């Protein structure tokens, strides 16, 4: 007698360590985390600055630069291998619609960009962080290095990545955000220092930089991973903005400072941290719904803001107007374009109706219906 088939064993995915700083090698740690579990990665990797000797000011005082062992690689081949390995591990963690930000200087950003493309990431933008207060070039043999470059890339060309365009534009006085961002380098009370007054980390990034990119490319509740966590700027900003985070850091001293820093952060209320709703994400409302609901009756007329053109409404949601080519009937968009002799028209904004003795765009009626659908 055949035995009943046993159900296949179910291997539970390990729990995602949200809100934790994981100590250890970032590549090994990333490979231990669940595949396709992260919405966004922000990475501030070693720059491989290739510094030679001590840098001094004109008064012979020593410049407090980056001379830690973690920023030193034997040659470009070793650095490229390291970069390829951690970017591959990062891509494994990203959800299909996830994205990554990497930041670097002229020493390494071009190498990272090439490897990103080799690994089938899809580069969306490069953003220049212009430093309002850069360190001067003390030797006077080069331009002052006054910027760093961020690369924003989707996991693939097919990814439906997050971009909160309307939020950014509204917060920028209704202007599109450009790809040059002006921020001072981290200083003042924000700069973390040890008990002797020395910098806790030589390359601490300003929170304002992380604030902007998180508002731009994540939503409340998204999971953000930082494989080079340092003293926890990513975690601090993510906690404040209602995003979930995971930090990877191999230096226990940096990890300790990060935990203490983030513990003191007060999270914003969800409503205050959420991006403004995107117009593209709002439900589609056909003009026929306006007619069906009796907000505008068949046989009534709509007109443009200057009242040079008018159209009659039909019961099926089409409208009819006199154009230069004769009478034309169609959608609010096609008829709006026809009366103007234009290739296209947003009929919701072009056509108006009479309300309380004044002309109002019919888009107000669409918004009324959208409110009913929420």
Task: Give a quick precis of the structure.
The chain is of the alpha/beta class and 374 residues long.
Layout of SSEs?
Blueprint: E1 20-23, H1 26-32, E2 38-43, H2 76-93, E3 94-104, H3 109-118, E4 122-131, E5 147-154, H4 165-171, E6 180-183, H5 207-217, E7 223-226, H6 233-240, E8 244-249, H7 252-263, H8 270-273, H9 287-292, E9 301-303, E10 310-313, E11 319-323, E12 326-330, H10 332-340, H11 347-350, E13 352-355, E14 358-361, H12 363-373
Helix pairs in contact: 1-2, 2-3, 5-6, 6-7
Written overview of the protein:
By secondary structure, the chain is an alpha/beta fold. It has 2 domains: 20-280, Vaccinia Virus protein VP39 (Rossmann fold), CATH 3.40.50; 282-373, no CATH class. Helices cover 29% and strands 21% of the residues. The chain is built from 12 helices and 14 strands. Strands 1-8-7-2-3-5-4-6 form an 8-stranded mixed beta sheet, sandwiched between helices. Helix 6 (233-240) links the parallel strand 7 (223-226) and strand 8 (244-249). Helix 1 (26-32) packs parallel to helix 2 (76-93) and helix 6 (233-240) runs parallel beside helix 7 (252-263). It is elongated and about 80 Å long. The model is unreliable at 1-11 (pLDDT under 50).
CATH superfamily placement of the largest domain:
Vaccinia Virus protein VP39
The total of helices stands at 12
Share in β-strands: 15-25%
Instruction: Report the C-alpha radius of gyration, rounded.
Output: 28 Å
Low-confidence stretches: 1-11
């Amino acid at each position: 007698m055949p035995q009943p088939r046993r159900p296949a064993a179910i291997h539970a995915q390990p729990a995602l360590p949200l809100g934790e700083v994981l100590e250890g090698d970032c590549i090994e740690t990333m490979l231990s985390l669940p595949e396709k579990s992260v919405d966004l990665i922000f990475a501030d990797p070693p720059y491989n600055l290739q510094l030679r000797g001590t840098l001094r000011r004109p008064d012979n005082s020593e410049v407090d630069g980056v001379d830690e062992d973690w920023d030193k690689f034997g040659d470009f081949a070793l650095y490229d291998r390291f970069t390829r390995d951690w970017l591959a591990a990062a891509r494994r963690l990203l959800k299909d619609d996830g994205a990554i930000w990497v930041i670097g200087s002229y020493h390494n950003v071009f190498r990272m960009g090439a490897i990103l493309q080799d690994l089938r990431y899809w580069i969306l933008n490069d953003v220049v962080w212009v430093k309002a207060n850069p360190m001067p070039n003390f030797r006077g043999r080069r331009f002052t290095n006054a910027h760093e470059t961020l690369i924003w890339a989707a996991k693939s060309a097919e990814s439906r990545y997050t971009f909160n365009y309307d939020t950014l534009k509204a917060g920028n006085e209704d202007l599109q955000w450009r790809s040059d961002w002006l921020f001072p380098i981290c200083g003042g009370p924000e700069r973390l220092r040890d008990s002797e007054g020395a910098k806790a980390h030589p390359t601490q990034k300003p929170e304002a930089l992380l604030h902007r990119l998180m508002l731009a490319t994540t939503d409340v509740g998204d999971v953000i991973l930082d494989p080079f966590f340092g003293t926890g700027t990513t975690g601090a900003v993510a906690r404040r903005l209602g995003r979930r985070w995971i930090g990877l850091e191999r230096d226990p001293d940096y990890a300790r400072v990060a935990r203490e820093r983030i513990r003191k952060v007060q999270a914003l209320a969800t409503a205050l941290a959420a991006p403004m709703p995107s117009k593209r994400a709002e439900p589609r409302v056909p003009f026929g719904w306006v007619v069906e609901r009796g907000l505008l009756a068949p046989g009534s007329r709509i007109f443009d803001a200057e009242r040079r053109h008018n159209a009659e409404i039909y019961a099926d949601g089409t409208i009819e107007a006199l154009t230069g080519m004769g009478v034309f009937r169609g959608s609010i968009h096609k008829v709006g374009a026809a009366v103007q002799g234009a290739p296209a028209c947003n009929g919701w904004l072009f056509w108006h109706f009479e309300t309380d003795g004044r002309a109002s765009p019919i888009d107000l009626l669409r918004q009324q219906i959208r409110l009913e659908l929420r």
